What does this fold into?
Amino acid sequence: IDLMNIPFLAGYLLGNHKTLQQDREPRDWAGLTDFCHQAGLSHLLFFRLRQDPENSCPPLYRERLSNLFDLSFARFSRVKAEVQELIDYCRKSGIQAGFIKGFPLALQDYPHPATRPMQDVDCLARDEDLPGISEFLIQKGYSRLPDQSRIEKKPVFIKLLGPHVFSFEFHHKLPTSST
It folds into this structure.
């Protein structure tokens, strides 16, 4: 990527549409598009471009970014369906579980859920509920990663969703101010 694109990208992704002035315009849309795709930011760049009717993104790159945005939204929709199945299971089973970090933020704090990069969904559940949750997820096609392969010993379940690996990561306690 042309390093002159970095200040443009940072300002633009933060919603500063004034960065699209002639002297700050990206010189290399191909490089910028590739960089954003590799960095997992292409869907956010497209969302911002869509909000800015005066952008000068060439149609070829705008279409590519649009396609990447659509793929990101489709992935989020699949993840949301997986989360809903887990929510339904927990409710039916009387399990109190919560979702923390990225997934709830995508629904509440982002302008569009597809603009929140997300590789997993973090869940909070009691230790005594994990065996039932584990059995449910395994029946749904998930595999549990071995605990000894990770520094943190929290259960992680993975599954292929479309072309991407998706995971549920379970926490059984939240850090306190003393830890």
User: Anything to note?
Assistant: The chain has a mean pLDDT of 76.
